[in-house]
Every structure is written in C-alpha cells, then in structure tokens.
Amino acid sequence: MRGPFFPGAGTSPFRLEGRDAELRTWERMLTDLAVFGQTSARHLVVQGVRGVGKTSLLKQLAEDALTQGCLAVRVRCQTTGRETLMERVRHALDAALQHRDLSAEHGRLVRAAVSTPVGGLEVERELGPGDPLTDTAFMQRLVDATEEVRSRGGTGLALLVDETQYADRASLVNLSELASLIGERDGDKPPLLLCFAGLPTDTAEKVARSSSHAERVYRTITLGYLDEASTRDALLLPVQHAGGRWEADALARAVALTGGYPAFIQEYGQAIWELRRGDRIDTEVVAEGAAAARPQIEAYYEGAWSAAPPLGRSALVALARAGGRARMGELARALGRSSSSEISWAVEELRQRGTVLKPERGVVVFGRTGMAEWVLDHHEDETS
C-alpha cells in the first residue's frame, strides 16, 4: 500500500482539509470569469505561519483554475533577490504560453492605462513623472496575456505568488497598480486574478504598502491550524484510501498529538503509517509512531527556538513553566518586567512565526503541541 502522508516543505497532502471557505471564495472568482468574463472580487492575500499549508493551498487554487479553463501561473519569490518578482513572472508566463498559437496583439498601455479592443474604451491614469518603479511594459504583458488566453477559449489568467514576504517593492507596486487600473474600469475588464501568499504580517503589510488603497484591492485571509474535525479527516481519509483502518482510540490520540498543525499531521501520519500492523493502526502503533517521529518534530522546536530573540526565548521558558498557557501580564511578571508592553514585541515575533498563538485577547499558548515539554527538557535554566 502506498504511503498516504507527505511531510516536507511545499508538498501537498492527500487532500486539502479545513480550507473549504478559501476554496469557495476562489471558486466564486473563477465562476465570475467563466460566466461574466470578469470579476469585481478583491484579489487575495493569504498569510500564515510556516507549515500551515499556504503552498498546498496555492497549488490547489492553481489546479482549480486550470480545471475551469483559467491559465494558472505560480511563481515563488527569491530570498536572495537576485531575480525580481517581475522577472520571474515574465519567465513563468512565457513558459506557460510558449506552446500556444498566439493571436494578434490586443490593446495597449498608455501611461499605465489599461486599454482593450472592445469599443476602443480605455481607462487612463497618469503616474508620477519618471516614476522609477513603473514598468508599463510589464503591466502590458499581463494584459496581453489575458487576451491571449481568452482568444484561445480560456477564461483568464491567475497569477499566484508564494513567499511574498521576499518580493521586491517595484514588482508589487506594478502588480497593485495594474489591479487598481483594472478595478476602476466600468466596462470590459482584463480577466486577471492575483493571489499573494506569505508569512503573517510581513506579507499583508508589504502588499498594503504597494497600493494607496489596498483595502479596496485586496482581501486578506489568514490560515490557521485545523479544527478537530478537519484534523481527524486529514488523518482518517488518507489511511482509508490507502486500504488501512484506524481504531477509534488511536485516531483520537493522533489528533491530539498533531494539535491541528498541518505539518505535524503529515509528520506523525507518515511515521504512524509506516509502523502499522497489517492494515490496522491501534494505540500502540500511535505511541511507536510518535517516538519515531520525535527527532523530526524536535527539529521544528529547535528551529523555532533558534529564530526567537533572547527575550522571546525567556518568554518561552516562562510559558512552559506556566503549563503552556499564560496571560501576558503573568509572563511579564515572570520575566521581571513591570508591564506586558515591555515584552509584547518579543511575543509578537514569536506569534508571527507560529511559535505561540493568541487564542484570546491577552492570552498566550504554545503554537505547537509538545513544545512546552521540550523547552523544559532542553532550556529551562536559560533566562534573558
């Protein structure tokens, strides 16, 4: 029987669980393109901590787009910055269209104006003179691409950008400017969908800074951990599909182990699957699988610890001593601070990385199950 779990960065699970709302939003946008030839929906910004499934969601969005006849182009921003996002988009777009019999050139861009061949109508906006960030040729290329796709019976173009926190400003400004220009049209709009994905705060803020009215252009979606029902399905259904079966107690134990963290679902799932007895998974198999997965799980903890600032590490120790859940004021006092505001920046940095979560106002918990025990075992004596 083939293994039904796929741990590793960017690998897609057997089935994308717990993201129905996001998929429905995308489906409505694709339907708009198919039925009306355009959409008035805001473009998407998807943010979430590492391991929560952003890349997997982008892959599913791309697959759904292709199924609906919309050309999907996925690109990943480089951490090195040697190649701009615009360059990566150009190359990916050319590769996607190279086998097409391209039709005649459609429309043109005048001072960053979107122009279409329908009735010669155009919307035009003057940009700042000599604006070094403006690349009208790039924007025109995207507009032309939407028409090329539509001329061959497609519905439009979907551009999906991963690791947006590493995107260069000029590229984001041009993409946002084009999205704004298209949005201002009352008539025929080039059928272009944008979806940016990346780490919390950094991604949304970076995209927001690329547009003077981002709140009208983009809709931000934050991917969290899976709820218990979705976690259960993410463990149960792949095993069933592969011909295996869970005992009820074993499945409940595995759900608790993962804490709903998608990366842990795949890590624990694979280890447990490999130790199954025949086609059966019982509580003993889960215990053995948890032990087998431990080195890889601890690599997540170690990575989170290493990335934390000194004050953040001290906060993690204090949180672990408090049983894994504490109010901000309690953490501040444990660290010898008079106010929670003195540690808020460090806790926020931990939250952005998914090391801790804030399930309610003023309350902090560990973001990954088992990390409290790991911190006490490895770093309890460390202080700021």
Q: Taking strands numbered 1, 2, ... along the chain, how are they ordered across the largest sheet?
A: 2-5-6-1-7
Summarize the main sheet.
Answer: 5 strands, parallel
Straight-line N-to-C gap = 50 Å
Helix-and-strand structural type: alpha/beta
Approximate strand percentage: 5-15%
User: What is the rounded Rg?
Assistant: 24 Å
- Point out poorly predicted stretches: 100-130
Tell me roughly what share of residues is in helical segments. Answer: 40-55%
Number of structural units classed as domains: 3
The CATH topology name of the largest domain reads: Rossmann fold
Please give the CATH class of the largest domain.
Alpha Beta
DSSP, total strands: 12
Query: How would you name the CATH homologous superfamily of the largest domain?
Result: P-loop containing nucleotide triphosphate hydrolases
User: How much is the average pLDDT?
Assistant: 86
Helix/strand order:
HEHEHEEHEHEHHEHEHHEHHEHHEEH
Separate helix tally: 15
Q: Which descriptor suits the 3D outline?
A: globular
Any idea what the CATH architecture of the largest domain is? 3-Layer(aba) Sandwich
